[in-house]
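Data availability (excerpt). The following record was deposited with the supplementary files.
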Amino acid sequence: MIHENKKNLAGVPFENVLSCFLSAFEGYFIKLPEDPNYWWERFTIARVNWELSFGMFDEDELVGYIINCVDQHRESLTAYNTGTGVLPDYRGRAIVDQLYEHAIPVLKAHGVEKCLLEVICENERALKVYNRIGFEITRQLRSFTGSFPETSSEITLQKCHFSQVIQSGLYKEALYSWDNSAKAVELMQNRVQTWCLGDPDSPEAYLVIDNAGNIIQLFSKSDNYPGLLNAAGPLAKEVKLKNVSAGRESQINTLQKCHFSNPVNQYEMEMEISSF
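Predicted structure:
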C-alpha cells in the first residue's frame, strides 16, 4: 500500500527526480540519455516549472510524477507535460489520474487554461490513460532522420539571426511543437544557428539547426524544400527533424524523396481545463 503523499516537485532534489524519471522510462520505445546535464538543460529550455510539477510519494520516495512546463502557447497559458512516469512496482494504481486530479485545481489557480502533451502513437497504455483523464488527440507529429542531398546547389544559405525570421513574419507558431517553438530557440542561444534563403530581413525560407544536427525549424514560403535541403548540404552530414506536423505534406514528401527514415511518430494531445 502507498503511504500516499502528493505534492509539487519544487523542493525535491533534481537527482531524485531524474532517478525516478529514468527508472520509469526503462524499456521505453526509445532509449533516453542518462546525462544529468543534458536533462537539466533540456528542462530549462522547455521551461519546466517545478512548483507546478507534481509527484506521488510513498513516504519519502518519489514513485510517480508529472513534469510540467508552463508558458503562453497559441494564445493560452499552457502546462506542457514534458514527462510522465510511474515506477514499475507502482503501476496499475491510477497514479497518473490521481496526479492530474491533484494538479488541475492548482494549475487553474495559477491561470493555466490548457494542458498539452505528446505520446508515442504505439503507446496504447498511455493513450488510454490520457483519454480517460480528458485529453484529446489534436494532430500527429512525425520524426525523421537522414542526410542532406549530396548534389551541388547553386542556391546558397546566408547566416542570419532568429530575430530576423520573427520580424519578417516567416515564423508560424502553429507549425511547431512545444520543444520547437520560438521561445525554445531563443533559450538555446549559442547552441543553434539560423540560416536563410534570400535577404535576411525578408527571407524566402529558413532553417534553425543545433550543434548536434537537430533541425529545430524548417520553413519555405514557396514550398521549395528540395532547394532548401540542397542548399543546407554543407551544414551537417546527418540530421534529425523531430515532431514535424503530419499536415506539412510538402516538407514530408521532400524528406521521403531524400530517403529520410521515419523512426517514430507521436500524437499531440490537449485538454482544456477551464471547465473543470
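Summary of structural features: The chain has a mean pLDDT of 94.
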